[in-house]
Amino acid sequence: MLSNIAFYGAIETGLIYGLVAFGIYLSFRVLDFPDLTVDGSFPLGAAVAAVLIIEGVNPWLATGAAVIAGMGAGAVTALLNVKLNILNLLASILTMIALYSVNLRIMGRPNIALLTEETVLTPWYDLGLAYHQVPVLLFIIVVMASLLLLWRFMKSETGLAMRATGANPRMARAQGIATGAMIVLGVAVSNGLVGLAGALFAQSQGAADVTMGVGVIVIGLASLIGGEAVLTPSTVLRALIACVIGAIVYRLAIALALNADFLGLQAQDLNLITAVLVTLAIVLPGVRTSVAARFTRKKA
Amino acid sequence: MITATDLTLTFGKGTPLENPALRGMSLTVNQGEFVTVIGSNGAGKSTFLNALAGEVMVDSGNIIVDNQDVTKLPTHKRAGRVARVFQDPLAGTCEGLSIEENLALAIKRGQRRGLSAAVKARYTDQFKTSLTSLNLGLENRLGDKMGLLSGGQRQAVSLLMASLTPSAILLLDEHTAALDPKTASFVLDLTTQIIEEQKLTALMVTHSMKQALEVGDRTVMLHQGQVVFDIAGQDREGLEVKDLLELFEKQRGLEVDDDSLLLG
């Protein structure tokens, strides 16, 4: 079915989209804030990291800068919503559109190749692992660390306040929680994670491209919903694990679909397959009624 | 102590739906007083409570809580002084969080929240003792999701949450109105018990004149965004619903045509 390289490749991108799914879990689920900024903050993270790396900056520092840039983008979206009272979905679309220009400005051209540059992956190739296994190892560590940090945060006083903000803002205010500040913080952290994912993606794929963000939101949502269908997210920890599992399962499913010759699918069909998969996951009552219920309620 | 002076508030100003909710409303609630507030629909009861809590901003007038002017402060900045229980039993708690997590949110009301674990081991005993006082067996269900509880249970926990940390005033917004009669009387008893034990200053809005006279030590009636009468002490002793209605008619010189006042 799948070659070894295709398999590891699916795990690798799955792990990266696990980070995106964390971000989307934070905005869509925890804060109940439908945030499409990710389509812009993913390439933003890639652009910032790529530009800094070709300037000779340490790749980890460059990746850190990508996280901060992503957080900035998220903060802009949240502030448009909180301070200017723009509908959350619209605020995120505005930021996403603006980021397309910003990303082009940052890169100075539509794409930057990183194939010959030193990236966060470079030192790991000396460990003696097969070439296609290296990113998987590193990304497992990054994803695990992010998961544990996020879990710890959600259990903290501030994290609990953030969960209350999304679940019951009126009650949260009555408990003295500055709900506006919580939204800004949460959406910033969410997009910081997406920026991190973008930076790692650019480094593992060997290039940053201004169009690489198209559909990231849908892939992240597919991961989130798929993960929730596999693992009922009754606790924060389970929900976070579900994000990673969902992302990996999704990438494997895509890889299988593209590799199954009898289906006749090609790489350019990726977004179509994604949209179809997400639609199926939402509407197929047999898939998981609870997921469907949760998602249709969100829309109302 | 809480002092509201000459509050005015008009919803939808300058539109055909312009609706003056508060028209020069003034009220002082002294330390340790338990005031019940009645009034027909649209009298401004809920708006008054929302104004005190900070959910709506008044057009003019000012609100002083414990010698601090809070008129311009948003809800979350008043929360340290103002505790609240909502009418909707689902509104005061988070159903997706556990009982323990809800209480942990409330114990930090109005205080800085940091990055330490929200549910701390040292809270457990306090939470269990408080929950035991409800006699609902909730002390053994700290980890259960709030959403598993009934409306009455949730309202009881909301009350507990509001009294977990000290406040200058406890606002109760028809908090028994959405419950069945038996549960409502349980929650009301619990309310008077908590207010007496902790010597709280409280303002309770109710639709029921009977309830307004039975509990608390002072009753205020609102009409068209103003206080029409305010009785306490001896004047209030032995007063019945029909006396209250007569008083209202005398004060206003008009007929009460709102059945909800009589039926409550």
Describe the protein in words:
The complex is a heterodimer of chains A (300) and B (264). By secondary structure, chain A is mostly helical. In chain A, 72% of the residues lie in helices and 2% in strands. In chain A, strands 1-2 form a two-stranded antiparallel ribbon. In chain A, α1 (4-30) packs across α9 (216-230) and α1 packs across α10. Chain A is globular and about 55 Å long. Chain B has helices at residues 45-53, 75-78, 99-107, 124-132, 151-162, 181-198, 209-214, 233-236, 241-252, 259-263; strands at 2-11, 19-29, 34-38, 60-65, 68-69, 82-85, 169-173, 202-205, 218-223, 226-232. In chain B, β9 (218-223) and β10 (226-232) form a beta hairpin. The mean pLDDT of chain B is 89. Chain B is built from 10 helices and 10 strands. In chain B, α3 (99-107) runs parallel beside α5 and α5 packs parallel to α6. In chain B, the strands form 2 sheets. Chain B has a 6-stranded mixed β-sheet with strand order 6-7-8-3-9-10, sandwiched between helices. The radius of gyration of chain B is 19 Å and the shape is globular. Chain B has one domain (2-95, 167-263): Rossmann fold (3-Layer(aba) Sandwich). The chains are: A mainly alpha (300), B alpha/beta (264).
